Amino acid sequence: MFGVVFPNRSFPLDIAAFSQIDTFHWILDMNTFVGEAYDQIREVCVFLLNNFTLPPDKALAVYVQSPGSAFQYCGAVTIARPSAVLSLNWPEPGGQLQLTAADAAPLTAKIGVSVVDLASLTSLDVAAEKRIERLAMRVGENLFNYMQSFCGVDGSKLIVPMDILDRWFKKFQERAKRDPEYLKGFAL
């Protein structure tokens, strides 16, 4: 039905590596592969296998769960998009899940895969949206810090030179041309 690869970390794993919960849900216990270092696994490539046809109105959604947290949506694949490299933004571990004495087994990180209605997914590329948001925030911080270094104070107002945006943008462009790694630093 589907397979996953952890880039630079694993060979392809098929559905047999997952525990099947029911007809439409599978769980991969990360303890099996990396133990407590699950949060160092930052990406997963999920793909549909050639002989499996997912209905056009369905998607194969991928979720992550840190120990003690709820599952968090990462992205999905569909017939129109049969493979994707998804960022694994692990939620903070925590006590959001209530445990009873019978559940005293140690909590582990998990990757969940589920067949869902395509219409129920708000976006197939949540991870890309988060990367864009982080990039925008870092560029904004860079601009703010640059402007702050030229600020003067007039009562309760900050005063900056009129050409500050032009100067910042030229400096930003020049640095990006000189050092191709510079822009990559903003996306981390």
Automatic annotation (TrEMBL):
This is Hikeshi-like domain-containing protein. One of its GO terms (molecular function) is nuclear import signal receptor activity. The lineage of its organism: Eukaryota, Viridiplantae, Streptophyta, Embryophyta, Tracheophyta. Belongs to the OPI10 family. Residues 18-121 form the Hikeshi-like N-terminal domain. One of its GO terms (biological process) is protein import into nucleus. Residues 132-184 form the Hikeshi-like C-terminal domain. GO terms for cellular component: cytosol; nucleus. Transmembrane segments: none annotated.
